[in-house]
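Q: Got a minute? One more chain.
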Amino acid sequence: MTNSKLLFSLLLAGSVGTVSAQSLKDARAAIEAENYGKAKTILQQLVTKQPKNGDNYFYLGQVYLVNDRADSAAAIFNQGLTADPKATINNVGLGYVDLLKKDKAGAESKFALATAKLGKKDYEPLLEIGRAYIETPEPDYAKALEYLTQAKAKNTKDIAIPLALGDAYRGLREGSLAYTSYGDAMDIDQNSVKAKVGQAIIVRGAQAYDEAVTQLEAIAAETPAYAPTYRELAETYYQWSRMPGTTDEKYLELNKKGVAQYKKYLEAAGDNTLEAKIRYADFLVYSRQYDELKTVSEELAKNPSVDPKIYRYLGYIAFQKTKDYSKALEYLNQMFSKMEKDRVIPLDYMYLGMAQIAANSPKPAAPAAGADSTATVAAPVLTPENTANIQKGIADIKKAIDGDKELLGEVAELAFAKYQEQELQTAASLFELVGQYKDNPTYLYDANYYAGEAYFQIGSKEEAASKNDEGAIVDQAQKDKAIATLNKAIGFLTVIETTDNKEAQDKYLINALYYKAFSALTADNLESPKGDFVPMFQKLIDTINQRGTQEKNKSYLVDAYTYIGLFHYMKQDMPKAKQNLQKVLEIDPTNEGAKAYLDAIK
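A: Always. Here it is, folded:
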C-alpha cells in the first residue's frame, strides 16, 4: 500500500440502505468528518440494535479498514452476509480485503457476487467497487472508472459518484477530467468541501506543492471544521519533503509543518481514540519525526495489546533515538511475530535489516593509549555468526527496497556509514545491493564505485593474509579467495570505466581506474606476473593526461609508471622498463626506487 493510502484512506460513505436512516446518517456523517471513533461507536450500537440490517455491518467494516484491521473487517463483512444475505454489498467489502491481500481473482469473484442481481436503480455496489479499486494497495484506476461510469449511469444525484470519478481520473493523471468531475460534484452541492479539496490535490499531483498548500489553507480558513483538509495539508508537506534535492534543513522544516497540520486534523476530527493515535503515529513514521514518535509511542506502549504496530514504533525509536540496536531487533521481531503479514510495510523490513546489521557489526578497536591520532585502527572482526546475521539483514533490506524504491537513499546512507566505520564487508554488500537497481541513476554509480573500492580493500587484506613475513604465499586457498574478491572489485569499477554518464566519470573515473589497476596487480603472481594490470595502469596514465590533471594526480602517475616499469623489468624488456622508470623521475626526481632500478639497468 502506498504511504498516502496507508496513512490517509478517506472513505466517504455512499447511500446504502434506508432502515434506521437517521442513525446510519449519523454514522456516515462521522465517517465524512473522519471521526472514526465516533462512527465505530454508533455502528456497533446499530449492529446490536438492528442485527438483521446488513448495511450497518458494511459501514462498521469500513471503519476497521481505515484502522488497518483487514482481518477484523472481513469478519464483520461475513457477519453482515450471515445476518442479511440480501445485503450483498458486504461482498464488496470482502473483495476489498482480497485486494489488500493482493488476491485480485478473489476480489473479482466477490465483486461479481455483489453485482449479479442489481436492479435498474441499484448503484451502490458499483460505487463501492470503484472506490475499492482506487484505494487498493495496487490501484487499478481504469477498472475503477468502469464501475463508477456504470454507477453514474444509474444515479446522477449522489455526490459520492463524481467525487470518486475525480479521484480515479486524478490517479490516471487526467487532471482536466478530474477537475471537471469535482466540478460536477459542486454542481450537486456547491458547498462540497471535499470537491474543493480534490481540486487542490490535483495541483499537488503536479508537484506544485506551494500552490497546493495555498489552496488548502484557503479552504481550511473558509471551513475550519472540516478535518480532512488538515490531513491533506499534512500529506502535502510530507510529499514536498520527499522531493529530490531537498536539503536536510528543508526536509525537517516541511515535516514539522506537516506534524502541526496533522495535530489540527486530530483536533478538528475530534477523534481521541487509540486508533486515531496509531494513525498519527503512522504519519510520524513516514515523515521520520522520531522525537514526536517517541512521545506518542511511550503513551501507546501502555496498551501494548491494542495493536502490534506499537512494537514497530518502539523498534524504530530504539534504533533512531537510543541507538539500542539489540532492543530494536527485539521489538521488531515481536512485531513480525504478532502482526498479520499483509500489514507489514517495506519500512519494517528496512529497520529489521538495519537493526540486524547494526547489532552484529562490532566497532573498530579504539587506538591504544598515547597512539597518534592518525594511527590506522584495525577493522572490526566479524564472527561467522555476525556475518550470517548481517547477510540476513541485507536480505531484509532488499525486501524493503523491492517494496518501496524510495528507500534506496536510506540504504545508500547506511552503506556510507558502514564504509566510514571501516565495516568494509557490510558496506560492500550494501553498496552491491544498491547497485543492483540499475534504473535509479541517483545512487547507481556511487554504489558501484564504493563497492569496487571496498572490495579492493577487503581483497588486499585477504591477499596479505595469504603470505608469510617474507612475502611468500603460504595459504593458496586464502590467495584464491583474495583473487575472487579483487575480481569483484574490478567488475564494479568497470561500470564506472564504461559508462557514458559524464557526471559519474568526472567524479569517479580516475580513482576507479587506479583501484581497478591495483586490484589486478594485487591479484597477480608478482614472482611471475601475467601483467593484466599493465594496460589498466596505461589507461589511467592516458586518462590523466587527456584530462590535464597531471599535477593533481602526481602520486597516481608515479605508481602507474613504476608498476609498468617493474613489469617490463621482470620480463627483461629493459628499454620499456627504462622508459617508464624515467617518467617516474620526471614527476618525482627524488624517487629512490626508480633510481635504484635504473642503476640496475645500466
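A: Residues 445 and 503 are 9 Å apart (CA to CA).
Q: Perfect, thanks.
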